[in-house]
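Thread title: Can someone regenerate the structure for this chain?

I was given the following input by a collaborator and told the matching structure tokens would be attached. They weren't. Posting the sequence so someone can regenerate them.
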Amino acid sequence: MGNDFFQSRTLKPCKTCISINTNKRHTHNRKLFTQMWKQREKKQAKQNIKSTTNKTLQLLDNNYQTISQCSEERYKRKQTKEDRNDTPDRDNTQHTHSTTIYQN
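Best answer:
Regenerated them for you:
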């Protein structure tokens, strides 16, 4: 049991190269390390771009749906207003509101 504990402590996976390091000093070739790091950054950037693009497209779609909904409602209101104005019994004279001035 004790041996397994020490063995599991020394066999930790390396986060950069995803290989098991058997000793505590796990070194990388600098050129290989930078190359792998750049590949990882490129992959992350692609994923970020995809997620941002998807979010933007979803927002644009939502905006388009909202705008089309509003324009439909506006069109319906305009039609009903014209229908109301077409009725002959309605008086189309302009009206004013009385303004009262309150003094302290």
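The longest helix spans residues 30-86.
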